[in-house]
Amino acid sequence: xxxxxxxxxxxxxxxxxxxxxxxxxxxxxxxxxxxxxxxxxxxxxxxxxxxxxxxxxxxxxxxxxxxxxxxxxxxxxxxxxxxxxxxxxxxxxxxxxxxxxxxxxxxxxxxxxxxxxxxxxxxxxxxxxxxxxxxxxxxxxxxxxxxxxxxxxxxxxxxxxxxxxxxxxxxxxxxxxxxxxxxxxxxxxxxxxxxxxxxxxxxxxxxxxxxxxxxxxxxxxxxxxxx
Length: 227
Fold this sequence. Notes:
By secondary structure, the chain is mainly α. Helices cover 81% and strands 0% of the residues. The protein has two domains: 2-57; 75-226, Serine Threonine Protein Phosphatase 5, Tetratricopeptide repeat. α9 (173-185) runs antiparallel to α10. The protein is elongated and about 60 Å long.
């Protein structure tokens, strides 16, 4: 999108430059015309530089080019993060006043999850589940955040969380994948194949994920044929 907008602006500036040059050629002569040509060229360069900076940086914050590169967050992204941090502080204040407000604990857990603070999100989801044990969002959040704290390598406890999740949501993609992979690890190949086939039906045939699951199924079938 940004690339095409840049091309459009570039085209507009080029047309303006050519039009300006034709106008100057008709109206002025000699040194004045040469100076105006030079000024027009400088103006074009200036406008192109401003446009490139605007689209490339989206008004990045910082005092220098180096700080802009290091702090590579656009104004929109920073505002979004600031809003979420403010929301977190307000929720934490409310929970401090009422520690048993499990709906707000759930909201805080979801917000922490969104900003990538998975360890705190997991603790909060686990706490919220005490009073809301059948809340599907909490069950999903607890399992996912626990998995991400383990860098995608699930412990036995995390496997149990995904087993509970799959009982509640039989079409949960991540649960099908995690448990399928775990069955392969345990050499329960038929169970693994069954979960992979269920997962395959839920994926877009043109997606990369579909191909990956097909490859997993082929691997399992090869292992089954060896036995």
